[in-house]
Fold:
Amino acid sequence: MAEDNRILTTRQGHPVRDNQAMRTVGERGPATLENYQFIEKITHFDRERIPERVVHARGAGAHGWFEAYGKIGNEPASKYTRARVLNEVGVKTPVFVRFSTVAGAKESPETERDPRGFAVKLKTLDGNWDLVGNNLKIFFIRDAIKFPDMIHAFKPDPVTNRQEAWRFYDFIACHPESLHMVTWLKSPWGIPANYREMEGSGVNTYKLVNAEGVAHLCKFHWVPKQGVRNLTSKQASEIQAKDVGHATRDLYDNIMAGNFPEWEFCVQIMPDGPNDHLTFDPLDDTKRWPEDQFPLLPVGRMVLDRVPDNFFAEVEQSAFGTGVLVDGIDFSDDKMLQGRTLSYSDTQRYRVGPNYLQLPINAPHPEVQARTNQRDGQMTYYVDRGGESKHVNYEPSYLGRGLKEAPKPEKDYHQFVEGHLGRYQPTRVQDDYTQAGERYRTFEDWEREDLISNISGDLKQCPKELALRMVWHFWHCDEDYGRRVAEGAGLDLQEALKLPPLPGKPAPGKNRQGPTYTDGKPEEGTQLQAAE
Structure:
C-alpha cells in the first residue's frame, strides 16, 4: 500500500500519533523531561526567526519600581508566601516592563487586533522574578505542544506571506477551548487604547509557598490605576492612518511629562489540589477564575517613572522567562506554564546569546551578585564567580575553595506526584463554551456590536464549511451570539446547526446559558454525553 504522505511526522521521520498533548504524569500531573516530541518541536519553533523575536516582536518598555503592601487582602502576606518581595513594606524593588503585540513584526502597527504582552522583571534582593503575561487573563490553548501550531496559523501564510482569516479560524474550529479567548480578542478588548490603560495578567497558574511549606494555587494580575480603555475597529483604523506607534508614543510622552502610570498588583488564591468541585480545571489557562468566588486581593503597586536610555540595549535585548521565580513563588502543573518555562529561556539563549543575563537590562539587582560555575560562551565579558579560588569552577570542593549550596529552608514544599505516564486530554471541558457565552453576555451593547462585526467580516473571507462550523461553535456558547454572527456573515443558521459535534470532542450540552456534561471520566473510545 502506498505511503500516506499526509501523516504528520517528527523531523526524525517518526509518525506523530498524538499532537494534542504533552506526556504528563496523570491527566493533571507535571510534564517530564523526556518529552522528546515536544522538546524537538518547541526548540525548533524558538529558532524560526533571527534576530527578531518570533512572537512579541513589536514592543516598548519602561523602568520603575514595585512596593508591597505586606498584606494579601486583609491577611498578612506571610500567611501565603515567604517571598520577601511580597512581604517587606517600604522597599522599592526596581522593575523593567516590556509591553508588546504578539503576532505582528517589529515595525507592525500598535493598533493591530492582537493580545498585548505584559512582561515584568522585578529585580528583588533574592534575585530576579519575571512575571511574563498578557493584557487578557486567558489564552487560546491549554497545552504547550500546540503553541507552534497556533502561532503558525496566526502568522502570515508561508506561500502568500499574508495573514489570512481562514487560517486563523481553521485552527480555532478544531479547538473549542479557544472560543473564550476569541470572544475577548474580537471585541474591543482585542485593541487596548494604549499600554497605560491596559490590564496585565500572569495568565498561568502559579503557587505561593509560605514558611511552613504550605502551598496555595494563585493567579497574578495588574490593575491599572488609570482605568481600562479599548478601541473599536473604526477608532483603531483612524489612529493607524496617522501613527503606527501610538502606544509607544503615549507611554513615553506621559512618563516624560511626569504622568507616571501605576498598577495595583493583585492575586487570586485557591487551595492547592484538583479542586474537583469546580466545573473547570484551575490549571487550564483558557479559563478565568470567577472573581465572585476568587476575588482579586491587593498585594502591592507598581509605578513606571523612567523611559529607556537606549531602545535596543534595553527594550530589544530585555529577556524574560516564566521559570525565573523567587523563593516563595513556585510552579503549578499548568501545562502551558511548564512548556513556556523551557521555551522562553531557550529562545533568549538563541536570540540574544548564552550570556544574555550578563547584559545590564537582564542582570540581577546590583546588591545581588551572580555567582555561578558557568563559563565561556559567545559574548562573555566577565566571570560571575565566587569563593576564594578562580581555579575552582565546580561544586563541591573538598578543599572548600569554591562555591557552596545555600541553606535549605526549614520547611519546604513537596508535591506528591503519582500517575500513569501518557498523553492526556482534559475531561473538565464544560466551560470551553460556558465562559465564552458568559463573556458575550457581560459585554456592553457597543462591545457586542463590534465583536459581531469583526467576526462576521472575518467569516466572509473563509470557506463556507469553515464559516458554518464557527457559527455552530458560537451558537453553542450563546444562541444570540451564534444567530447574530450567522446573520452578519450571510449564513444559514439552521444549516450550521445540522453539523455534528467535532470528532473526538465532547458534544456541547443543549443549555445555551452554558453546556453541561454528565460527571465522570469517559471510557476509552467514547464521548462524554451531553446532559439534557
